[in-house]
Structures are given as C-alpha cells and as structure tokens.
Amino acid sequence: MKTILYAAIACLFMLLQGIVIPAQVSPAFALESESLNSDKPKAAPKELKDTAPAEASSDEDNGPCPQSYIKLVSPRAAAVGATVSLQGWRFGKDEGQVIFPNGVPAKVISWRYQNIDVEVPSGAVSGNITVITACGSENRKGTGSYFNLMGAPKAK
User: Fold this and answer.
1) Within a domain: 11
2) 137: closest CA among 75, 71, 62?
3) Are 126 and 100 in contact (CB under 8 A)?
4) Strand, coil or helix: what is 74?
5) pLDDT tens digit sequence for 57-106
6) What's the domain range around 92?
7) CA 33 → CA 29, 40, 138, distances in Å?
8) Which end of the chain is flanked by fewer CB atoms within 10 Å, N or C?
9) Looking at the domain assignment, is residue 155 inside a domain?
10) DSSP state, 22?
11) Secondary structure letter of residue 138 according to DSSP
C-alpha cells in the first residue's frame, strides 16, 4: 500500500513540475504545451525575405526615390587608400556617390543594390558616411554609417 501511495505522490509531483511520463499519462492530463497530434509534421516556416529593418523605412520610402540605409561599414576603421564595404538597403542599381565625413567624395570600386565598395579618400575624417543614390536621395544617419579613420581626428 505504501508503494502505491509513494508512486501516486511521485506522479502528481512530476505532473506539477511539468515532467511527463510517456504511456502512463492519459491525453486528458497532457500539458498545454504538448500537442496531442505529435506525430503530424509541423508546417514549414514561411520563406524569409531580405527586407530592410523597421528603422530603415518610413512613409517617404514608398516614393520613386526612397532613402537608402547603411547597416554596416566594414571594416569600421581603416586608413586612407583602404577598401571599405558599405552594406545596407536601397542603394539602387545605378552608381551614385559616397561622401566621407568632411565632405570628401570616395572613389567607388563596385556598386550593387545592397553593397558598395569604396576607397577611403585622402582628406576624410572619422564620422558618418553618406550615400547619395543615383536618384538623389541620401541615407539616414545612424550607428551603422559610422566610420573611424585610423590616425585621424574626428569630424566636428
């Protein structure tokens, strides 16, 4: 009798703790997080789309020339003459301009819709990089557009 009592107490304790003993618990006592149809395969997740984050979009972005958004400058710090890659959204298929802090334009090596490679120009300083697309829009300034010129003073 003690054995049955101890087993019943142990089962109740495990049920209260969320531990399930397979084949000993009826479906009426299944936990909410468990599926009674566990042998049915789950639906495949929807395909992910490469879209800009919420901070990169606004009502103005639906027009013919939406603002671009720089997600990452890589490397974050480089010397004059080094190649820097800008990754983000809405740069456009046609080449525009990349302006380093202090108003110095960069030489564009390659221009793609989500990636631009440029050469760090002489006269540039540390600060936010600006992308001007072919249609004339500028990117929003954010933490992703910050660049640090190695061995140079910061922009004022």
Assistant:
1) yes
2) 62
3) no
4) strand
5) 554 555 678 889 999 999 999 999 999 999 998 999 999 999 998 899 99
6) 67-149
7) 12, 15, 48
8) N
9) no
10) T
11) B
